[in-house]
Amino acid sequence: MRQFKIAMAFVGIIIGAGFASGQEMLQYFTSFGIWGIVGTIASIFIFGFFGFVIVDMGHFFKAYSHRDVLKHVVSPITSRVIDIFLLLTLFGIGVVMVAGAGSNLNQQFGWPVWLGNLICVTLVFLVGMMDTEKVVNAIGAIAPFLIILVIIISFRSLSTADWDIVAMNADALELSSPLPNWWISVLNYASVNLTTGVATAFLLGGVEKDKKVARHGGLIGGTVVGFLIVLINLTLFATSTQVASFDLPMLQMARLIQPWVGFIMSILIFFEIWNTAMSVLYSFSTSFITPNKKKFRYVLLVTTVAAFTLSFGGFTNVIGFVYPAVGYGGFIILGIFVYTWYKFCIRQKSYQKNVSVKPTEE
């Protein structure tokens, strides 16, 4: 059961505004046609591997923040550089999520974008006042329901599509992408999502006492993410002419099936967007002060207000700019973490006995 909670929390971290809505898939995979499908299959193995590694590292170092890992594995200068990059990433993706929340409710209900943004940051602040374990549980609570609905929508759309592969491929290649080719797109996509989720994934492992539970939870979560990428991209590949012009193509796909399906999908997408906003903005705040401190509420409040203020740049435009930049920077960081995992978690099992790892407090 604990493995399932960790797995769903990991999925909840990754499935945010661009993922759940289909906008990321459209730009990163669908736009490369058949080669984009090949890329999604590779993503199953990439996300499964890193889910295992990152959560295992969090368990090994009993981490509450990425700083609890960095201070033991790299030099102070390198740690500071990575720390700044991760903090900017967490906050930047948080802004994207808040913007996605407004776009979602605007597309489905016609509400003002600012209202959806405000509802999202308010929920982040209120849930962030809970203890850490409850926050982790909240992050993973919605994921199973969205997974089920995505599967239903995808199979319904795929079963009714006119499978003219040549025409579908031509239509997909008409879409624009911020990346130069499919294989760089695959690596960049994995990098941006894993870099975004690494701080909270460390926390998932850090609060779990059983190593096997932590490892298997991360592996299952990463693998589920990979299969969802394949499924959503196949669906968008088959229906791109109908949904590509919308900010949230998966929501439009649900609305084409039945209006009530679109209604349910919009609610679930909103909460998955909130999930990722919750994880990144909460992790950003815990990097400055531990959640059990009274002043934490003020740090979280300033963070959410700042994210709300900067969230009006346009959802699609923000994804096209922020995500590739984060992805390129994340290559180096993820490489360091893999080396660190092999060095400390695999080769030096006795290391943990000789080091006292305490949550970061500043």
Automatic annotation (TrEMBL):
InterPro entries from the UniProt entry: YkvI-like
Signal sequence region: none
Transmembrane feature ranges: 32-61, 81-103, 109-128, 135-155, 182-207, 219-240, 260-284, 296-315, 321-342
Keywords in alphabetical order: Membrane, Transmembrane, Transmembrane helix
PANTHER family in UniProt: CONSERVED MEMBRANE PROTEIN, MEMBRANE PROTEIN
Record-given protein name: Membrane protein
